């Protein structure tokens, strides 16, 4: 075996992304094995037809090339694991569903997970380890940072800047900005499920509702 691919995480996120990873290798006519990595495992097991092992066991696998998709919803954990993989010389693996739509001038960094029915249109820059769940879209002229997560059905319209570690909840709608004044979702901000964001969101806050408003600490 010359190459081994892995999905890091056997939770719902990992098990949902594994079929997409399989489809991608088939599309590329790549016969590499895909395994699960989960640090809670002590012995190698089988999960949904794939070998599953802990990280130490993965490192011991004899192969000339290894790449890993981090299928962990928590963006801070994704960052920690990405740093560990980098230290160990293991490449981040990007996985894109067969029916995802990527248009012109889409610059997406390593480690992305693009689920089925996602659309990423034109002139977009996205950082590493981006997760875009089912039926989300990113419209033109958006800039998205590292370790950003879109839950299913996010509507990210044009001229929006989303900073590192932001989380956008299921069904949220973000109003289009302008080239002169992009709408900004600040670093680490959380946009609640179904929120309608009509103005920029400061770093680190949580917004909910229509129109979205900041949830004040109790």
TrEMBL record:
CDD domains, per database record: LbH_AT_putative
Residue ranges of every copy of the PglD N-terminal domain listed in the record: 6-85
Protein name according to UniProt: Acetyltransferase
Family stated for the protein in its record: Belongs to the transferase hexapeptide repeat family.
Species of the source: Acinetobacter faecalis
InterPro entries assigned: AcTrfase_PglD-like, PglD_N, Trans_hexapeptide_repeat, Trimer_LpxA-like_sf
Source domain of life: Bacteria
Gene3D superfamilies reported in the protein's UniProt record: 3.40.50.20, Hexapeptide repeat proteins (2.160.10.10)
Pfam families: PglD_N
């Amino acid at each position: 075996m010359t190459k081994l691919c892995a999905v890091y995480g056997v939770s719902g996120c990992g098990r949902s992304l594994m079929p997409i990873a399989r489809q991608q290798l088939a599309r590329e006519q790549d016969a590499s094995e895909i395994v699960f990595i989960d640090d809670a495992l002590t012995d190698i097991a089988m999960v949904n037809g794939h070998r599953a092992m802990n990280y130490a066991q993965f490192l011991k696998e004899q192969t000339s090339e290894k790449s890993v998709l981090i299928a962990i919803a928590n963006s801070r954990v994704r960052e920690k694991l990405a740093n560990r993989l980098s230290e160990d010389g293991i490449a981040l693996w990007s996985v894109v569903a067969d029916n995802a739509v990527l248009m012109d001038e889409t610059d997406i960094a390593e480690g992305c997970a693009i689920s089925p029915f996602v659309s990423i249109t034109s002139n977009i820059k996205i950082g590493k380890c981006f997760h875009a769940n089912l039926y989300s879209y990113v419209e033109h002229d958006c800039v998205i940072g590292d370790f950003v997560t879109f839950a299913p059905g996010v509507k990210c319209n044009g001229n929006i800047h989303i900073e590192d570690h932001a989380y956008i909840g299921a069904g949220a709608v973000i109003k289009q900005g302008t080239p002169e004044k992009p709408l900004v979702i600040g670093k680490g901000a959380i946009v609640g499920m179904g929120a309608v964001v009509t103005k920029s969101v400061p770093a680190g806050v949580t917004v909910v509702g229509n129109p979205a408003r900041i949830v004040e600490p109790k």
